User: Fold these one by one.
Assistant:
Number 1:
Amino acid sequence: MMAPSVIRAFTVPSHVESVKDTRVEVGHRSRARVALDRSPKANVTLSQYMRLPVEQYVLIKLPLDSELTKLDAGSGVDVPEMESDNNTGLFKLLVPPITFTNLTLQPVVFAAVECRKNEVVIHSHTCVLQGSEFIERTRLNERFDFKVETSLTWEDNVDSDSFIYANTRIEVDVDVPRPFNRIPKLILQRIGNAAVKISLKVIQGTFVENLASDYSKWSQDEPYRLYRASLSQRA
């Protein structure tokens, strides 16, 4: 069995002066765009594909051993309120492990996904860290605030290429526990921003590319379209 993929951030020296302010804010904005060939048939447009039931996102392959799971509505997970109950879903995203110096953490994000008229919105303020005894010892899951929102939009062209766009904003505010609170705040922010940037770039970029590949298959493969339609009927 292969070891799980790990995203590594920068390492820092341990002989640094302590600081009083232990709260650190990190974040990143990311954009991705992928071009697609125009639809071969009028009834298999990109707009129709993007408006398929959101629970079918679990069929899209994710990078680095990431895993997306559909949750039941009564799961009890705290997620942002959605504008409508129509074509919405709750998901659990297992993010690849992230290493800060000698500490490895694996984030688990619980998100709400909502399909609107011309946009698919993914948003969350619930993230649970796992993978180390350090998390429980320092009550790390109680020491940070987390917020992420991704907007998927598209450009559906008849006579030229179509496009899928992804725009993501992620913000994390952490009350840094010992011994990491001895590291200067600026260095911690750089480490955190680097880790967030790397993770987001890999996951978002690959997801959009795989979404485009899945659309190409859906638009050209009628048995696959029928299979996807049968999933909608079961829901």
Note: The beta strands are 7-8, 23-36, 67-71, 88-94, 98-100, 103-115, 120-130, 144-155, 162-175.
Number 2:
Amino acid sequence: TSYFLVFKAFRLAFSEAKMIGVVPAMKARVMAMNFIQKNQKIAEFLDHPAGPFTIHFWAPTMKWGITFANIADLQKDPELLSVSQQSAVTLTGVIWTRYSTQITPINYNLMSVNMFMALTGGYQLFRIFTHTPKPKEIAAEEGK
């Protein structure tokens, strides 16, 4: 019977369309501020379906860290780069760039981060496959 009571409580909470959690309460407080109410552009940005009170904003924003790390890796020797890692970054970028153009509303943050992931990953793969070993490495291999 305890399972039934839990199920009934969840059904009641969701049937009344109440938002449960900290984020909806925080969003309501922020949207009620005079500064926000007076600035229509800011209010629209905050209330957008892909705005900063949703995962659709924060997931792509945090994903930029992967792109920035990949840009930082441009300084690394191509022999230290992983083909499987860069392939995953490139394919993820290509797949999710396409997906982000098909959802409504179009999430431009998601589209741009994945486009840059595909570009940086592709460039890293290009560096890996076109890398020629240094003369010391060639001599070491011949001596084996």
Note: The chain has two domains: 1-47, 51-144.
Number 3:
Amino acid sequence: MGTTAKDDIADGELYIAIPDHMLMGPERVEPGSRLDKKLMKIVKSQSISMQEQRRLLSEKNKVLMYFLLQMYNPKKESFWKPYFDIMPTNLTSPIFWSEDELQELAGSEVSNMARIEKKRLRAMYDELRERIFKHDRKTFLKQAFTLKNWFWANGLYDSRVIQLNRQTGHGNVPTFIPLIDMVNCIESQDKTFIQYDKKLRAAVMYADRAVSRGVQVFESYGNKSNYEYLLYNGFVMEDNPNDCVYISFPSSNARDVRQFCVSTTEIPYQVREWAKSQSKDAKSYLIKHIEEKRRGYRTTIAEDNELLSRTIRENHELAVRLRRHEKMSLDKIIENLNRGALQCC
């Protein structure tokens, strides 16, 4: 999936504008909307507390419900059908991977992050099914509101929804923006990505570089690490300057394990303080801890390179790319700590 320039685009030129009526966000499910009225009726019949309402009918959940209602409307074709028709059916985020595929991420915190997210999504779906969906099957059709479809819609939300400030006084709001979400990612100094033009009443994008006709257009998705790109977008970026490795740092309380993302250029303040609390020789202690993390991977970088030289399954390739990047980063972090190139303890 990608977007190609039909004509030459100049640096700084407005090249995509998506008007308000094509956007899909919380305004579609705001108080008083058709879906909101149906949900409030169910909530009252179930005597669901305000706290439970906020959790079950979160902004994200309501947008996902609206999305599935539009996609699986048996009465009339949705306005967004052309958009739905080009949505990918095969998503590559680790929440869609099998357990065997997740095992390929052994050593990386991403494997457990994916397992936790899968468990959370399953629990939320089960609760929504019992407390909301089954109480109005004319609206929440069984064939539409399945676990598989809920996972799929959630995956699309995580990979495509953009936090857009539509200048309504509500700050950034999660919004599906057709076409704009088809633009692939590339590293860029321009971090604005998508803006809202109040005069045009549209979500807009300006080119951060010149693009020739027939060439694919790219945009930055912001300052994200590869674990974020893989977990939420389903890809791994080569040469990502914002990359970091999630590392667990236990405390004296065995249940209290904190995680921080450590990069080759910066040791988080909390990690430096943790190392000081563990040993008088905090730097050596931190290096040993990171070396132990490094030994947790089952393959070497050379073995990963050999795998990547062959044709392997897409999810397997993504796992190999991520673990390879993490090992390379950990090696560089250890090297930089040893030679004093990183502020430590």
Note: Residues 244-338 form one domain.
